[in-house]
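2024-03-11 09:14:02 INFO queue: dequeued item Subtilisin-like protein, len=874
2024-03-11 09:14:02 INFO validating residues
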Amino acid sequence: MKSSITFVPLLTVAALCLQGSVEALNHHKFKPNHDATTLLKGRYIVELNHHNTLPNFVQTFSQSLDNAHVHEQFSHPIFSGMSFSLNGPSDADAEKLHSLLDSDDVVAIYPSRAVQRPSIQAQPLAADVPYSAEQIQQMMPHSLTQVDRVHSELGNTGKGIVVGVIDSGVDYLHPALGGGFGKGFKVALGEDLVGDAYNGTNAPKRGGPPLDNCGASTGAEGHGTHVSGIIAGHNANFTGVAPDATLGMWRVFGCTGTATDDVIVRALLAASDAGCDLLSLSLGDLSGWSETADAIVAARIVAKGTPVIIAAGNAGADGAFTVGTPSTGPGVFSVASYDNVNNLVNKFTTTGVDMKIEYVPAAPGAIPSGELAIGDNNIGSTVDACSPSTIPDTVKGKYALVKRGSCTFVEKGTNLKSKGAIGMVVYNNAGNTAFGPSAGGVGIGIVGIGQGDGEALAAALKKGTKITITFGSELFVVPVTSGKTVSSFSSVGASYELELKPNAGGPGGYIFSTLPRYLGSWGLMSGTSMATPYVSGSVALYLKSLGKAKRPNPAYIEEVFQNYGYQAPAVNGDSHIDTPLRQGAGLIQVYDALTQHIHVSPAQISFNDTSSNKYKSHTLTLTNNGNTTVAYAISNNVSLAVVPYNLAKFGYGYQSPINYSTDAASLRLSKKTIKVAAGKSVKINVKVSPPKTDPKEHIMYGGYVQFKATTPSTPDVTVPYFGIVGRQKDLPIFDEGTPFLSNDAQGDSTIPNNQTIIIHSNANSNDSAVYIITRFVTPSPLFQAHVLDAKSGKVVGAAVPDQPFTPRNTFKPDNQIDVFGFDGTVYSATGSQAKAKPLPKGTYVLKLQALHMFGNPKKTSDWDSWTSGKIQIQ
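2024-03-11 09:14:37 INFO prediction written
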């Protein structure tokens, strides 16, 4: 098997855990969701069995532990508990903590995570740049989703429906967002839970209205204001999805930095208590597990009857299984993104080559003209300008041309600035569409252009052509070649538990909406962050359409939108339908969802993998809630399949991005045609025969059960399905060549197994620790690192506390490997200690093991296992 990775020096550490500090709690109630890039050192969330037990537990906890700090307290029927942090407790404190957590009042302990600010492509428009009402109308995506018909034909604008938004705050003084806060205003509910200065590492300052007034100098992007405008913004020229809906905003991000997941939990509970009709969250992280605290709380709110709509994520470039939590929570509506059909761009002219090139600036404001130079010695690589060492000196005083990829736009721009460049022109790595690089605060002019234009400029520069670029301020509406297809950034399913995520999609690429007034009031953004409020606004329209009728449960509402989705091709002009793993049930069609009376449940099918016959057969129920008989012809409308691996090149490292094949499953349908009278239901059994591909390739096939209407004025309905050829349990967890031990935390050196490692218990010694380097090519339900006596083979402790729910690594430089430090101290292998203790002098080995997906922990064959060479503790 080929190794899937070449380590990138200095940028590869996803996690570093030295046992001398309490960074992971070892207790049988501990339920870590081990996304190592987001875990917060020594910080946890404790769930209690009842909210009445909270006051006494907090009091006892605070009085018993001198080195513990309580952050958030949750006294709520949905989730009761608290978050706390530990700062190097003594052995006595560790025993007290363990005793407290042993209490019957404690249900579970979760590690606390940093929730990243949404990764978006932003295009603020300067206030002095003219754009017309006609251009704004061309940018509205409502014709793609039938929202325009809901407004014009049904007169439904969502009035009276309250949409709760959890985000970065909102500039509610914006005229299109009501001009104020509180009763009688559009933004009527909510709270600032964190304050401007909060960055995820300091204490939040709770209180006051959720105003985003950060100012452009902070680098804040106005994410929450953009989201709010998509849902309910309105003025003479701009109309949100539900323009008369009421908004609530619970601010969880400050002007910079991240948020902690306990703040997200606080916001979810507060929005639920406020009586919101639905909740909308455009945030999350890369782990595909559903066991995080915020995902659990979101799922419980859904179970109580409130729809929760959450972004699937923007990690599509990293391949399959990139839909993130908390959108993976059971019952949560996970949203994919589709590109708008138009984009709003500027153009610059060139001398030396006769070209007018569309561009999108990273920030509003005038951009001076200048000469263009090649920005990387190997321009066109996947890592242009990711290191100053590859940037030629000729960029000094010029705009540097580089290709998009690998490192962030901020890193590219900062590196180029350090070499004297006055600006950066970054060209796309997929498609000739201009885009807005997210690169605020770098201090040089940065613009994004299409791939073809960038390659043409690079070719001319290589020939020695002198090129000067002059930036124009006039805006142009241009068609997007990928319009009404799934956005390239949209995360790919399924969940790690093989549930179909995303569930459906909305417009999220090149979306025009409100921005804070300090950013010019209007602009474009791209992301599932934009698709999510679009779907949320659409659900608000659906709830409004019910009037005083009893509302169905959130699962039924989600199914309504899934039944009538539009399935996009992978590429416009191609007859092949894109996989449900990218688009779920498809782009929502809101008018049909509100007016049609045919309902199919369940609205999606997972045939799982081929490890058993348990999931090969499913029964669909089609119900006619209308007044007339309907008839359908039922067929299998196959989609493209996902080829997750290139075994010859990368082994079982996921291809980034995905590749496709035309491998298709056949379906045995119990009925090929049906006629359903008004008020009646019909059941259809669907049994799959997967494509006959090599099980080692784990092809992810899919398609749609198509109900083709044969009666007039009846729209088709569809049900997406997917499955995997092969057994997920057979997939290796560790990449070839890992685990290994290293003298450094970057994994630059490999210690061979035939070399005895010496660890001195003296912490001041240069050789007081060794580093465990792992790379997870497949998620694992459980990772363990046992320490064994070298002579007897007896387990004497754990080098790393057990790590349930470990996500896979990616090819991104900051997530290629996980690193754990081992300094000769161990946790109890049975979970009886809350703090690591030093090993006695002697010789030991490390045994690392990771449980296969869907594996049985009692079966040795269901584990990947690796044993180190000898380690002497002196």
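2024-03-11 09:14:37 INFO annotate: Residues 528-545 form the longest helix (18 residues).
2024-03-11 09:14:38 INFO item closed
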